[in-house]
Amino acid sequence: MEGLLRAALPAGALAAAAVFASLAATPASAQKFPEFPDARLKQGRTIWLGTCEACHANDVAGAPLVTNKSAWAPRLAKGKDALYKSALGGLTGPKGTQMPPRGGNDKLTDDQVKAAVDYMAAIVK
Ligand code: HEC
User: Fold this and answer.
1) Best exposed site among 3, 6, 44, 112 by fewest CB in 10 Å?
2) Rounded to the nearest whole angstrom, what is the distance from the C-alpha of residue 18 to the centroid of ligand 1?
3) Is the pLDDT of residue 10 over 80?
């Protein structure tokens, strides 16, 4: 069957079918967050969905939402190193809103937290 499809369809249609198959395997809640071919951003997305999405995609903790580009612009302007530092060590904003160190997930390594920052930066810029 695979072989038949491969023979009958142009490459573009096959790629579209593959994307559709991978979307179908993803839980509905995750589908709205973009995926990137880059391996680092793929890793970051998985971590982000597991730990960061809870606050950064839901208006519960006063976190800058991924849907709010204007809230992110001044943060992105601080540069990646500053964002890594906030994500690793935590940050309390002027209104008392708190980013917990590592998003509250002590199991994440520094590199995993940074990958999640990279993913979030990629979708909010
Ligand atoms: C418990 C809720 C919560 C979780 C979970 C969470 N954040 Fe946050 N995050 C916040 C809040 C609140 C702020 C804004 C803090 C402030 O007022 O400046 C924030 C801000 C940030 C910022 C901007 C920092 C800056 O310097 O402006 C980054 C980057 C960030 N979070 C990354 C992450 C990453 C990566 C994860 C997952 C590993 C994560 N967050 C998980 C609540 C959360």
Assistant:
1) 3
2) 33
3) no
